[in-house]
Amino acid sequence: MANESEYTPTATAHEPPRQKTILRSAFWTGILLGIGIAAFLDETLLHQLLQWHTFYWNTDQHGRTLSDGLFHAFSTLLLLWGAFRLWRSRDSWSLPVRNAIVAAILIGVGSFNLYDGVIQHAILHLHIVNELVCSSPASRQDTFLGMCRNDLPYEAVFDGLALVILSIGIAWWRRVSNATLHTNQSTSTVDLV
Hints:
Blueprint: H1 18-49, H2 61-88, H3 95-123, E1 143-144, E2 147-148, H4 152-192
Antiparallel strand pairs: 1-2
Helix pairs in contact: 1-2, 1-3, 3-4
């Protein structure tokens, strides 16, 4: 366990600020948790409950189930890794840092869903949001840029929500991290005098 002095503001101007290290750790912890949460919700809601899609739809049922299982294992491992990082550094999470973690979670959720929508759906065609509205993955009939026209409204909503969540996370992160670093600099200046 690290001693408490690692998490206090620095007393000399020559040392790198500890608050930056804490914020960096909070950022990556939040990103891991955010990606894990987004993947878990995608797997639970879109794959299992609504049964709109599988991770890889251009295969037989066995391949679809296998790809979903691997995706679920990936999301679970990210959640466990993020939870471990959160637990390991729990002594350093002051209120501003807790807010930074929540902001980073939103960045992780938005980034993952935007990556999923743009890369996996539009570019790689691994799956689409709602496979029930399209005849088959191999069908090139009634497509727009290789994407099923009937799925485009679902894709637009999916990507739009991802952008909104990502934007909120980035704005919140900037606000919280700037306030935290500014508070730290004020404290360090007072400590130096």
